Amino acid sequence: MDYANDPELNGKYLGTITKDFAAVSDTIMEASSQVRKMDISKYPIFVFARQEVPIGSLLVNADDAGLEWHVFASFLELFVQQGIIGAEGIEAFQQTYKDPNEYCCLFVLDEEFTNFVFVPYPED
């Protein structure tokens, strides 16, 4: 695999994720804000997956929006409940988590790649 853009994010993913993220970043930013304002979680997570997955709630249907990636809204506590993040990993995740007003926490889920990626929101 070619890891030229990031040690963990293959170039083929970077391009399609960035393109789709730019198209839906306002929607994601608003959902992140609501999750935090409503005290659902301080740690919103947005799942990017090419197929429907049982993680969180569907926020953007790729087929309806003309995108490659479906977007699901979730959060840390749900990831712990579903066993994606173990109890021993909560503190490390919280320390790694970036400012949600500036960065989106993506959980990219695909056959060849599954990982957390922090993507900055586009400047207005």
Search tags:
single chain, 124 residues, alpha+beta, 5-stranded mixed beta sheet, 35% helix, disordered N terminus
The first-to-last residue Cα distance is: 34 Å
Oligomer: single chain
Order of helices and strands: HEEHEHHEE
| Strand order of the biggest β-sheet | 2-3-1-4-5
Q: What integer value in Å does the Rg equal?
A: 14 Å
- Share of helical residues: 25-40%
Give your account of this protein's structure:
Helix content is 35%, strand content 24%. Strands 2-3-1-4-5 form a 5-stranded mixed sheet. The N and C termini lie far apart (34 Å). The protein is built from 4 helices and 5 strands; from the N terminus they run αββαβααββ. The longest helix has 27 residues, at 11-37.
